[in-house]
């Protein structure tokens, strides 16, 4: 092997920096659209799987089973090449197709997280609310969901990280994301170390930032969290101080 091929050429990355910046925004946009839509969809699907009405339970169950049991790559191709052109008569572009596929896939996984979170709350709390005359919908909204959300934060955060990395699959429909930028540079220079290492580092940075945000949210909604102001008041008001 020519030792020159082992030399890293950062100039080629700099020449295509605008492509990486555009790919970064596309990746973040796809992730945000897919995750936010997946949260809303997952909430309805999760509640549907908890319903005792069969006409509501079984469609939600089959939906979750389908999207959890088939590869995301196949779902992206199916939605982009078949579903959207059939409904609208033409393609709506890679972003709409990619965001729709990520949302539908994420919704299925979030549905299971939300269902499990709600079922983890003791049944006695719903029964107590109902015994006080509170409607089941209000009890779910004001009593069950706030408590369940605390337990959902870690798995929902993991789903966000997974969706961020899975968004790279949208490059198969020519999305101008980070992976697409790496493929363009690799094809232009016939070099693979520099572009794909750059893509990997950018994904690693995004994952690190998202992990920090998720850790803060998880800590903020934990049962042991005390705001800094109140923590100071509690510290001042303790009856017994530390002995000298």
Write structural notes for this entry:
- With 244 residues, the chain is mostly helical.
- It has one domain: MetI-like fold.
- It has ten helices and no strands.
- The protein has helices spanning 10-15, 17-50, 54-69, 72-88, 94-119, 123-131, 136-166, 178-189, 193-220, 228-236.
- It starts with 9 loop residues before the first helix and ends in an 8-residue tail after the last helix.
- Mean pLDDT is 85; it is low at 1-5 and 233-244.
- Residues 24-214 form the ABC transmembrane type-1 domain.
- InterPro entries: AA_ABC_transptr_permease_3TM (IPR010065), ArtM/GltK/GlnP/TcyL/YhdX-like (IPR043429), MetI-like (IPR000515), MetI-like_sf (IPR035906).
What proportion strand? under 5%
Helix segment tally: 10
Derived structural class: mainly alpha
User: Ends: how far apart?
Assistant: 70 Å
**How many runs of DSSP E, i.e. beta strands?**
0
> Per the principal axes of the C-alpha atoms, what is the gross shape?
elongated
The CATH topology annotation reads as MetI-like fold
CATH class assignment: Mainly Alpha
Judging by the overall fold, what is the CATH architecture?
Orthogonal Bundle
Using only CA atoms, what is the Rg? Answer: 24 Å
User: Into which percent range does the helicity of residues fall?
Assistant: over 70%
Q: Detail the poorly predicted runs.
A: 1-5, 233-244
CATH superfamily: MetI-like
**Major sheet attributes:** none
What series of H and E elements makes up the topology? HHHHHHHHHH
What is the averaged pLDDT score?
85
């Amino acid at each position: 092997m020519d030792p020159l091929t082992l030399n890293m050429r950062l100039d080629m990355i700099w020449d295509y920096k605008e492509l990486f910046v555009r790919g970064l925004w596309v990746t973040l946009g796809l992730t945000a659209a897919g995750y936010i839509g997946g949260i809303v969809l997952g909430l309805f699907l999760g509640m549907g799987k908890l319903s005792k009405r069969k006409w509501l339970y079984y469609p939600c169950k089959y939906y979750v089973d389908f999207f959890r049991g088939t590869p995301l790559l196949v779902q992206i191709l199916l939605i982009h090449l078949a579903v959207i052109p059939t409904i609208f008569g033409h393609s709506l572009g890679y972003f709409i197709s990619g965001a729709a596929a990520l949302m539908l896939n994420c919704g299925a996984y979030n549905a299971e997280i939300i269902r499990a979170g709600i079922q983890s709350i003791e049944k006695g709390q719903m029964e107590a609310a109902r015994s006080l005359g509170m409607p089941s919908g209000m009890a779910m909204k004001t009593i069950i969901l706030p408590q369940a959300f605390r337990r959902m934060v870690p798995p929902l955060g993991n789903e966000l990280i997974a969706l961020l990395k899975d968004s790279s699959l949208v490059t198969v429909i020519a999305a101008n994301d980070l992976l697409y930028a790496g493929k363009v540079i690799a094809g232009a220079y016939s070099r693979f170390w520099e572009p794909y290492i750059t893509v990997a580092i950018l994904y690693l940075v995004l994952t690190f930032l998202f992990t920090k945000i998720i850790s803060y949210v998880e800590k903020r909604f934990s049962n042991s969290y005390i705001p800094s102001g109140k923590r100071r008041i509690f510290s001042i008001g303790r009856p017994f101080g530390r002995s000298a």
